[in-house]
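Page header: ASSEMBLY MODEL / two components / 1182 residues total.
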Amino acid sequence: MRSHNCGLVDESLIGQTVTLCGWANTRRDHGGVIFIDLRDHEGLVQTVIEPDNQAGFKAAESVRYEFCLRITGTVRARPASQVNERLRTGKIEVVAETVEVLNAAAPLPFMMDDTPGEDVRLKYRYLDIRRPFMQKALRIRTKLTQEIRRFLDARGFQDIETPILTKATPEGARDYLVPSRVHPGEFYALPQSPQLFKQLLMMAGMDRYYQIARCFRDEDLRADRQPEFTQLDMEFAFVEERDVQDTVEDMIRHLFRTVVDVELANPFPRMTYADAMRRYGSDKPDLRIDLELIDVAEAVKHVEFKVFSGPAKDPGGRVACLRVPNGAEMTRKQLDDLGLYVAKYGAKGLAWIRIDDLSKGREGLTSPIVKFLDDQAIDGIFKAVGAQQGDVLFFGAGPYKIVSDFMGALRLKVGKDMGLVANRWAPLWVTDFPMFEYDDEAKRYVALHHPFTVPKIDDIADLKANALTSVSRGYDCVLNGNEIGGGSIRIHRPDMQSAVFDLLGISTEEAELKFGFLLDALKYGAPPHGGIAFGIDRISALMVGTESIRDVIAFPKTASATCLMTSAPSVVPEQQLQELHIRVAKPEKKA
Amino acid sequence: MRSHNCGLVDESLIGQTVTLCGWANTRRDHGGVIFIDLRDHEGLVQTVIEPDNQAGFKAAESVRYEFCLRITGTVRARPASQVNERLRTGKIEVVAETVEVLNAAAPLPFMMDDTPGEDVRLKYRYLDIRRPFMQKALRIRTKLTQEIRRFLDARGFQDIETPILTKATPEGARDYLVPSRVHPGEFYALPQSPQLFKQLLMMAGMDRYYQIARCFRDEDLRADRQPEFTQLDMEFAFVEERDVQDTVEDMIRHLFRTVVDVELANPFPRMTYADAMRRYGSDKPDLRIDLELIDVAEAVKHVEFKVFSGPAKDPGGRVACLRVPNGAEMTRKQLDDLGLYVAKYGAKGLAWIRIDDLSKGREGLTSPIVKFLDDQAIDGIFKAVGAQQGDVLFFGAGPYKIVSDFMGALRLKVGKDMGLVANRWAPLWVTDFPMFEYDDEAKRYVALHHPFTVPKIDDIADLKANALTSVSRGYDCVLNGNEIGGGSIRIHRPDMQSAVFDLLGISTEEAELKFGFLLDALKYGAPPHGGIAFGIDRISALMVGTESIRDVIAFPKTASATCLMTSAPSVVPEQQLQELHIRVAKPEKKA
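Prediction written out in full:
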């Protein structure tokens, strides 16, 4: 139907006849001549319909925004005064011989060069995607997955599909369920990840596996979550941590180089979980922000002020300081607002010292807490953090994890607010995660990674004796403060798997019921294996430079898990439910 | 953990030390020396553990089938008498220095060189896949999808994911449903295909789309069906039939050439639906069988025998003959059995004439019906079909479609039973499908393809007046009697889409409710577009040379939609159902 793409017609075609298909981006009537900018996925080209082309002119007169057209015409040079150097097609125009309206367009719900509200964008997604931003976003995502496959195919990875209709998986989030028609009262679950299947593929001798896999979590949605999401899922047999990490680090560098022409560090920096929490208050530190938490417990152990000295003396406590150069510019209101901000992360308060004039000693400081600190404490703090004129120092004191969390959140907030986020890409590996956390409410251990991650300790008795201090062979890949990938070496010995289930409070019966097939499979010569999974939605969004993963998903859902275009989910006929042996049992309306 | 793959160690490594990981395929004790054939995905290598290697020997003595091992040793030439030319590793062996048991294996549920029953294979799929046949089958499938992507990526197709949690789709089969937790009483449906989304992507200006997409149909399963299956889904904007067909024909040839080294016809033969039904009694004729149906109505219109003359004179009837050379070898029992066989396809009976001796006229014929036919009829039939000595002629008479169907089934059955299936690959296009069929039970038209396929007639009034005789712009790609792909040019005008819904008995309200977003999208300059979808499971099975698509699916389900390995589907806790606002309503047990 066409000979060329609109956006690719250039001066090499002058004098030739071309047939183009696309959409009317604009129509201008100027001096008795009609100009239509015709647009396709490659870009715009200017077409000219002159009045002596009567049929063409008549058709062109009917054209409105987004009419779908086919135009045949001759390419000619534009007058020098009309050349547009920014467009590939800017030196030429197409003088129309025929103008065919392939399809008319009703008045649009929004102007194509606007960015309307997201509800409108999602309802009319088929129009939204015609906009150059979305064309580019989706094409970057396609390029990303192409390059992933190119890289992995060349290295012998097998792209293998695993089931979508499967058994409840143990990733900790809620499963989506699918009632079975053939087996009344029974349900499939949609996978939260292909975790067990990929491990089974290693036991099955497939050696190297990957899949760009759809996963499902019925969680309460936040801005960056979708009920279905896509991960690059990988698994390797006969490997240790570095085998996995080295391969995927090369891959990530390859992806950024080929998709968005960015050269990432080689090698990626590496950091233990303990260091990341200590220095950045986060297990996914954003290294673009050049601020660090400094422990000042030693300087305040002796003070009367129990808010500081209590945690400083407690082995489970922490007194951390964040020094912000030029922070003294902050107003009292801004400082108070930061106090409210960190309260959301569990802070009971946010102490601070503003160093207005370092030469004046105490007189030069503004602070709600400095009165509780003696000179020794202030000297000790200032030395520890290298305090300078114009700094503001923030203090968090309390239980180690809570202080780390809210001071880490503060670091990010202040870094962003003060424009301290460097314009670079900051990847790193975080390693040596704790194997377990103790859940105070449930009164039991929970797995920090998942129950199939192997501990560094080989000995089961040792592990049981040191559960809370033992670390796992898990690792996360972090980029610009986002956890873009997470993986581990897996348990391949059945006795270790049973021991970990046991520590997690999973009874033998429950383990058998839920994971019997895994425990069986481990009995038949399961190889050592490990892997990783990367979030394709997030990596795409980072590459596109958008905050929202919805911009890199063709048909995303809203925060209430609705598709505004198709109106899914929706009510279904009663008969369909009967066939599936279920009934709706709505929650009772509150009186 | 390893320096080389087992199956790739050859004489170029003689004298070198290698570290290999894999499974014990066999262990033989011979003359005080232990031989272990170690296997990985690349193949086998013979390792030798000599008794003076005390630690290694002790470890090797414990080895049983499928123990997972790491062996380090030196490659040496085998004695000439032990060279195995069929193995890449057949000229060498590895003299072990260390033998490490990475994991033991319990006694196996089956021997790895057996092919156990499918139930056992599926329950222990992780062992089944270790067998060379399954390794090869899954790797061929991976190679197939790699080559699909390579071909389409190079041609500008965008690989775009469409939702799995979506709205009920209109493909005619039952949907799998997913209850919504957030929206009580509402349900998502799993897609039967991405049909509407891919059309919307064309309206959204994505131009060329593909996806290797998971699809779901809750149908009663047959041997070659799975509740979830995979299709290569494609769509093109601004195209006509031949644009789609030419591209994908090139692709299919590329796939067979690169994956299984088969050169398919160029171009593929083309046949209308009407011709395919007339000549082969099938819309997916297996052209490897060199038998055709011949219409003999003209020869029998005049006879008294109403079984023949009735349909012969009826415009909606058919009298068809299948001539089978050397069919006269068939026994009476075999001929009777064929009668029973075609009864399953709707035949009321199967008439036949066996030509035992052509020179003897009637005397040389054996037949239950020849007594009802005069010489003129017999002559006419024999001329029409080119009857020869030793033939058997089968006759079907009755309504056109029924006769075509059972005679088509007979053709396949006889062709296979008599070894008449040529050892070649027979692709073709079938085109010009009827737009509608009339469903006598439902008293309405049904779409032969789907309701989005455009008719060849542009005029809506014409279409309404000639619904039953109008043909669509649909096309199927057939290979060796399998429909491997099906597609069409789609409706892009909103008035035509509404007219087709109307003809299908879909009310304006129902159309709005189910397809409102499509009808809306068509209003905003939808481009002409078309596409196709190919069954990846079936194409993989054809390439592997297996009858069962389960052999090319890593974790398939049984005919009752069960996963024998994980026991999905399964019962879930009541609380989970409460969260989803549903209750189980089992069918009442029969008293």
